[in-house]
Specification:
Layout (H helix, E strand, L loop, with lengths): L3 E2 L9 E10 L2 E4 L1 E2 L13 E5 L2 E11 L4 E6 L10 E6 L1 H25 L2 E7 L4 E6 L5 H16 L4 E7 H5 L5 H6 L6 E7 L3 E4 L15 E7 L4 E7 L1
Parallel strand pairs: 1-4
Antiparallel strand pairs: 2-3, 2-8, 3-7, 5-6, 5-8, 6-7, 9-10, 10-15, 11-12, 12-13, 14-15
Helix pairs in contact: 1-2
This protein binds zinc ion.
Zinc ion binds next to helix 1.
Length: about 240
């Protein structure tokens, strides 16, 4: 059974109630969860599942792409059984950093595409830092420095980050996300849109901050040469 993903509707949800659907050794599957699994290039959450006096540490969260189940991996023995009601609590400091770095990653990719035609080819947001791979005809360190400077301007400008759902037909009318919408499998009827006002609009499934000012400041850490036209940048906040 597909787990209902509560974080899609509220990135700021830190606690939630859920029912245990399935237990496999130390793996717990719930009917709904606010825990974000490792997916979409963003690291997983950690936290706790609580039932009465029992406290279970969630050390890893994975998504089963075939079933849509979110798997909470517990450190130690699990005495829960299907039908049990539990409370989930996510480690907020970790999640909030992931949200800030994720929105920062969207800003940098949007600026690089807009001003330098750079295409993002991959990326990963972790707690300490994020990395993104770009394809650029003439990659130059100054381009990335300029992109980070402009992304920081967007942070200072306190831009709202809006999350909403559109039908495929509605989404296709928006210039820029047409390509992404086309890539979505046809069974996906509703697309989750993440819009950083005036800068970026994407179909995206991960948690984000509500306003760019929450990011604070983006710092470029390092640029790695990954080929003639490929560069990997590392940054933090
Ligand atoms: Zn994203």
């Amino acid at each position: 059974m597909q787990t209902k993903l509560l974080y899609l509707y509220d990135s700021y949800l830190r606690e939630f109630e859920a029912e245990v659907v399935k237990i496999e050794e130390n793996k717990v599957i719930l009917n709904q969860t606010a825990f974000h699994p490792l997916t979409g290039g963003v690291a997983n959450d950690t936290g706790y599942l609580l039932k009465d006096n029992e406290k279970y540490r969630v050390i890893d969260v994975k998504l089963n792409k075939e079933t849509g189940e979110v798997i909470h991996i517990i450190d130690g023995e699990v005495k829960l059984k299907p039908g049990d009601k539990v409370k989930g609590v996510i480690d907020w400091d970790r999640r909030y950093r992931l949200m800030k770095l994720h929105t920062a990653a969207h800003l940098i990719a949007a600026v690089l595409y807009r001003d330098y035609n750079a295409l993002i080819t991959g990326g990963h947001v972790d707690v300490e830092k994020a990395k993104e791979d770009f394809n650029l005809e003439k990659p130059d360190r100054r381009i990335f420095e300029d992109a980070v400077r402009k992304a920081n301007e967007a942070v200072k400008n306190k831009l709202p980050v809006k999350i909403y759902f559109l039908t495929r037909e509605e989404a296709m009318k928006i210039p820029g996300i047409v390509k992404l919408a086309e890539r979505m499998p046809p069974e996906v009827k509703k697309l989750r849109i993440v819009e950083i006002e005036g800068v970026d609009i994407q179909a995206d499934g991960g948690p984000h901050v509500k306003n760019t000012e929450e990011i604070g400041e983006i710092k470029l850490l390092k640029i790695e040469n990954k080929g003639r036209t490929k560069r990997r940048i590392y940054f933090t906040i």
